[in-house]
Structures are given as C-alpha cells and as structure tokens.
Design brief:
It is built from 13 helices and 16 strands. By secondary structure, the protein is an alpha+beta fold. The strands form 3 sheets. A 7-stranded antiparallel sheet has the order 6-7-12-13-10-9-8. A hairpin with a 6-residue loop joins strand 15 and strand 16. The longest helix is centred in the C-terminal third of the chain and has 26 residues.
C-alpha cells in the first residue's frame, strides 16, 4: 500500500480537519467548518533511505452554507518509529504524515522534482513541475530555511539563490502571480525577482497553480521598514527614494500594457460601464460603512454624518475621471510589497516589486481582471499615509510637517515620467482625478478594516477621506 492510499484509508478526516484549522494560513478561522475531506492525492516521491516520501493532497473544507475552500497540503512521510514531531498531521499504519515544509530534506526533494521537470500522475490528475532552462536548480545540499512572516502562503529559501512560494488556498485557473511573473520575466523587466520555476495540478477537481520559484534577492530590505527608519533618522531621504520607486512602477505598468497580441494582457478600452461599475461598488461600500459607523468615537467625528457628502464627491469625480486603458496590474501594491536591494552600475540601490497575487480575499477571477494602472498608484499613496501615522503610533516619532505630501509628489513625478501616457487619461490633471476615485476606494476599505481590527488606527483613513473631500475637482 502506498503512503497516499494509506492516507486516504487510514487518516481520519476529523484529525486532518483539526490540523488544517490550526494552520496560520487557513483563511476562514472565523467561520464554522462543517467537514474537511481529501479530494485527491498524488504521490510525488517515494521514501528513499533516510529521505522522506512526498505526497500532494488537495483538502476541501466545507462550510454550512454550502460553500467550500480547497487547500494544498504537501505532506512528507517517515516511518513512525523515527519519532518525527514537527507539523504532524497524523500517524497511520506505522507512517507519520507531516507538513513537508517543516523538513529541509522534504523541501529539497520538492526542489529536485522542479529541477527534473518531473510529472507525477494518478488515474485522474497530473502534477507538472517546470524549471527555467537558463538556471541551475538548488543543489541537493542547499541550506533550506522557512520564511516565517506569511499568513496565506508558505515559502522556503534555498541557500541565497531561490525562494519557493506554495499557494495554500487554491482556486481554479492560473494564479496571477505566475502569470505576472512569467510575463515580466520573459520581457526582462529588471525590478522583480525573476521567475525560475513553478508547479501545477491538472485534474478532475480543478486546474490550479500550486507554487512558484523565484530568484532570491539577498541583502534586500523591506520597503515599509525602510520608510519607518527614514522618517526617524533621515526624513528627507525617503521622498527621493519614492521618486525612483515611482519610476519603477511606471515602467512596470508600461511593460504590462505593451503586448496587444496576448489576450490575457492586451490593454482594453474601459468603456462607460467599467467606471459605472467601479463607482457603484464604492458607493455601496460607503453606504454600508456609514450605516454602522460608531457615533461616540472622537476619531470619527470629522466624517460622522457625512456619508452622503462622500458619495456626492464620488459622483462628481466620476463625471471627469475617465479615460486611459485597462491593463493587468499588481492589485495589492503598497510598501510592504517592495524590497530595496543593493544596486548595480550607477545606481547604489534598486527597488524590487513582490507578491503579484493581488488581494488574497478577492476571488481569483477578480484578481485577474484588467483595471486602470492608477489603482496600484492609489495603493502606494495610501501606504505613505500609513507610514506617516505608524511612525508616531509605533515609534513615537511623528513625520515632519509636509512629509507625506512631499513623498506623494516625488512618487507621482517619477511615475508620470515613466508611464506610457496612452494608458492614462489625457493630461496629468485628468489622471489625478481618476486617481482620487481609487484613493477614495482604498480609504473607505481601510476605514472598515480598521474599525473591525485596529480601532486605534481609524484616524488614518479618516484623514485620507477628509483630504479627498477638500480637494477641488477639475
């Protein structure tokens, strides 16, 4: 009996369910789960000497309302008498099943499958591993270490060369991260961690991307952390850094809108219905948030009772904020999705853009939808607002007066210099009006999020909404 057959027959689904619900990447902790069961199993590697076996399992969590989520489990197997203890799912038939990413040897076996461009099949599914021809895979003795900060995926680093990200919650179709990295890597866009491999499942339950491998960027620093450091130690440095990041994002959008022959990436004319749908969605969100807005919170006093005024401002903006084109975009762009790496040539440092999945809470079909590139820009501008406030809230160091506005201006100058102008409404003023709509969308989303999760931070989106109310409309 193979480990996969043993798991299907001997591992209790109740035990599997308990284990799944305890994982940090399980995305529905606030919902009741009716049951968890295994949809499919594919044997990836048999045990060999001291090396563990590998099994891919697709586990489905069903909810009382009839909906469900599917999760990827890459499980390693060892004889139970070896006493393996980390990430254990179950012991069955003398075999211990555990999370493969808890075991460097198991992670190396997964890397070997990628390097071999292996195929593993069962009667109704296949797992396909792919590797870039111009890159050597991790060696069998590579150092393996986990990336511990993630919430929705699992990543491991091989030496200082590669990083593998396994998508935990799966949806049918190509993951946007794979699509975007493949497109940008093929066009040699320099400001990403280049795609070097991926693996995917194709079978009766669904076709889905399971994970991607990228070049690891050693000695790089997180953009959010750099921002907080600069506010504290050298506040004039960061706006200039944002000018260069604006250039990077503008060039990235230009590349993403450059191929009219690829249906998944070809730019599209927005049409009146696209803006109408956008504004209707934001209008509905404004109404929903303001209906439940607490009345006794001083931080909310500046916008209390002003929901209709905000909706009127949205309608006014929508009359003039049109034009440009719709393209594939990042979808969840903020400083935490960037790295500042040591530079090459004349530049002493270089910005790297990460995590092209889009907003994890959105459905995959929505994350793949083409939108105005200004939606990414709005996300970055709102990130600056958060830095200015977080510096005081977390470190007790307020940003200097005018710091956020200066940072916005430098970023936008770099962006508008680099972007292909046909992708935007004609003229910078019209582009900034459309940008205001996306900023309003972000700020209203932030208001709802902070009310539910970080009440002490509600002042940040309140200030953003007030600024948008006060700005003149062309």
């Amino acid at each position: 009996m193979t480990p996969g057959e043993l798991m299907l027959g001997a591992v209790e689904e109740e035990s599997l369910g308990r284990w799944l619900l305890e994982r940090r990447w399980f995305g529905s902790k606030a919902r009741d789960v009716a049951n968890v069961h295994v949809l499919d199993i594919v044997e990836l590697a048999e045990p060999a000497g001291d090396e563990p076996g590998l099994v891919l399992a697709l586990a489905e969590a069903r909810f009382p309302a009839g909906t469900h989520d599917v999760y990827q489990l890459v499980l390693a197997t060892r004889p139970a008498d070896q006493g393996w203890e980390r990430g254990v799912v179950a012991d069955a038939g003398g075999v211990t099943f555990y999370d493969a990413f808890e075991d460097p040897q198991a992670a190396l076996r997964l890397a070997a499958l990628l390097g071999e461009e292996a195929r593993r099949e069962n009667p109704h599914a296949v797992v396909i591993f792919r590797w870039a021809a111009d890159s050597e895979p991790p060696p069998a003795d590579a150092d393996v270490r986990p990336v511990g900060a993630e919430q929705s995926n699992t990543s491991v680093v091989y030496g200082d060369a590669f990083i593998l990200k396994a998508f935990r919650r799966l949806e049918a179709g190509d993951n946007p991260e794979l699509e975007m990295l493949r497109f940008l890597s093929e066009r040699r866009f320099p400001n990403i961690a280049r795609l070097t491999g991926w693996y995917e499942y194709r079978g009766e339950p669904m076709d889905a991307t399971l994970g991607v491998v990228q070049r690891f960027i050693p000695c790089a620093r997180d953009g959010w952390e750099i921002a907080l450091e600069d506010v504290a130690a050298s506040p004039d440095t960061f706006p200039e850094r944002m000018y260069h990041l604006g250039h990077v994002i503008g060039r990235m959008h230009t590349v993403l809108g450059s191929d009219a022959t690829d249906p998944a990436f070809a730019p599209e004319e927005p049409g009146d219905e696209a803006l109408s749908l956008l504004t209707a969605t934001i209008d509905e969100e404004i109404e929903r948030v303001f209906v439940d807005l607490p009345q006794d919170d001083p931080a909310l006093a500046p916008i209390a009772g002003r929901g209709e005024e905000i909706r009127d401002r949205l309608r006014l903006l929508s009359h003039v904020g049109t034009g440009g084109r719709l393209i594939r975009h990042h979808g969840d762009l903020h400083l935490g999705q960037t790295l500042l790496a040591p530079g090459q040539g004349v530049r002493s440092e270089s910005w790297i853009v990460l995590d092209f999945e889009g907003e994890p809470a959105r459905a995959l079909i929505d994350r793949r939808r083409k939108r105005s590139p200004l939606r990414d820009v709005a996300g970055m501008l709102r990130s600056f607002a958060y830095v200015a406030s977080a510096s005081e809230l977390q470190n007790g160091i307020p940003a200097p007066a005018g710091w956020e506005q200066q940072t916005r201006e430098r970023f936008l100058n770099g962006y508008f210099e680099a972007i292909e102008t046909s992708l935007l409404p004609p003229g910078r003023k019209a582009a900034e009006t459309l940008l205001s709509i996306f900023e309003l969308e972000k700020a209203v989303y932030e208001l709802r999020y902070e009310l539910n999760n970080r009440p002490d931070w509600v002042g940040i989106p309140v200030v953003g909404i007030l600024r948008l109310l006060e700005e003149p409309v062309a």
